[in-house]
Amino acid sequence: MPSDPxxxxxxxxxxDVEGLRKLYELSPDESAETIAEIAFHKRRQKTETILxxxxxxxxxxxxxxxxxxxxxxxxxxxETTTERN
Length: 85
Known about the structure:
By secondary structure, this protein is α+β, with helices and mostly antiparallel strands. 24% of the residues lie in helices and 34% in strands. It has one domain (6-76). It contains two helices and three strands; from the N terminus they run βααββ. A three-stranded antiparallel β-sheet has the order 1-2-3, with no helix packed on it. The termini are far apart.
């Protein structure tokens, strides 16, 4: 009995600091860390800990595909980009 292919993926994001800077009208002198903390603080006030999608920037997508007797893993994104940038 053939099994259906299974695709699993994981999306890694970081706060969209420049978008948040504009949204909250913050000074260009504010650090990326301060801006991210402001955004997380505002989100926690609404009882959620994850920023909404429009306030994030995708830095990588990892994928795994199982199809019958094959298994493939790959990622999409720049090797130089991390969740810290």
